[in-house]
Amino acid sequence: MMNISLEEKTLELKFTWKIARNASDFKRNFFVKVKNSEYEALGEVAPNVRYGESAELIIEQFNQLVNKGLATITTIEMLHSLFQNVRTCNSLRFGIESAFINFWSKNEVENYLNIPKAKEIFTAFTMPIMPIEEMCGFYNKYNLKRFKYLKLKINAENGVEALKEISKVSKQQIMIDGNEAFQNPDEVLKYIEFIQKYPVAFLEQPMPSTKIDEYKYLKPKSSILLMGDESITDSPDMDSIAQQFHGVNMKLQKAGGYINGLRIINEARKRSLKTMIGCMVETTVGIRSAMCLCAGINFIDIDGFLILKEEPFQLIEEKNGQVFFK
User: Fold this and answer.
1) Do residues 65 and 15 both lie within one domain?
2) CA 309 – CA 171 distance, rounded (Å)
3) What's the whole-model pTM score?
4) Are 162 and 135 in contact (CB under 8 A)?
5) Which of 126, 249, 260, 277 pairs with 236 at a CA distance of 20 to 30 A?
């Protein structure tokens, strides 16, 4: 029998992380440790309030899983069977599954999953919403020109001025992330008309995920790639997603594990959709996991560890916008 434990860490941020629906100065993440006398491995849990996840829920569900025999698990099939019998939110499923697979593979995850290793991994860097007059100073302070892509968080009110302002200093391709801020396709089309003259890589989740018919109306009219994010959870209807978006942003914390994350990526590829690996605000434990799935991915946005005031694990490093395993 293995020893399995859950530890909570409060992660202070370098700056206020503001998106269209909320803002925060710290995150409460959890770390699943699986160990025996010879080896130990970690998995990260980054609860997302957007999906009803909380620290209290993580602790409650983890204890339920332990009581149902989590420490006796020896195969991935046993683990997934346990998840079917005990309600487990996506971020906790990922934290546990990644800890077990990291343990079983001794952190040779690509070999375990029988997937190629990425040769180079260049991440975008995401700018949160902030006063327009602070944007250029922020860009220069954090030397953001070193990243291949810049990701810009916007809301419906600041989207035009934010892109105008950052374009004074940025020459990169820009990913624009609306985080469901727009309410109808006409608003989005008006915004697209403005942004198409800039070097925009894509517009991510401009409307709420519930607006399925509106996205189906919008997609054929959009001159900019539309990337789904909030619409992509653990069990998306991929035929419907293909009618709404040109690509999908798969985040392991939402997919619920390596296995399901790979399934979503492969289902997207079958439908000729662009693929993206994203992240929450995570330490290098979670980001290292995301790196294992980056081979052949069109867009990579795994900068969550770079906004932490003090990153506690130091498992990977970033140089000139490229991330490396240590």
Assistant:
1) yes
2) 27
3) 0.96
4) yes
5) 126
